Amino acid sequence: MAREKKEKVAGFSANQFPALREFFSGYLHEDFRDEYGSAAGAARAFCGDASSEEAAQAREEWARLSKTLGTRPIPEMHAALQKLGGAWQPVDAEEFHTVDAIFIGKAQKAPQ
To answer: Which of 5, 11, 49, 86 lies in disulfide reach of 28, CB 3.0 to 4.6 Å?
Structure first.
């Protein structure tokens, strides 16, 4: 029951983000800081390694994810990101939005 409530609170299903699930599991794993320095560094590496189609799909999915989660409380954001399969738990919305610049080409800030 608690698990169902978390999914509803997060407002999305990880199945709606297949490219980001690939990114999270392959690049935002438990050692991502050692390998890439940051989530933005991991995103840059993913975009460099991905085909143009994979990168385009990830950009589209990130834009939706950012819109969905960008203003959510950190605990909700963490629960949702965990469903995508990675280990990244941003400390705040600002850290989350550092990846916007990589995937959607501009830094966005959550509304105050």
So the answer is: 86
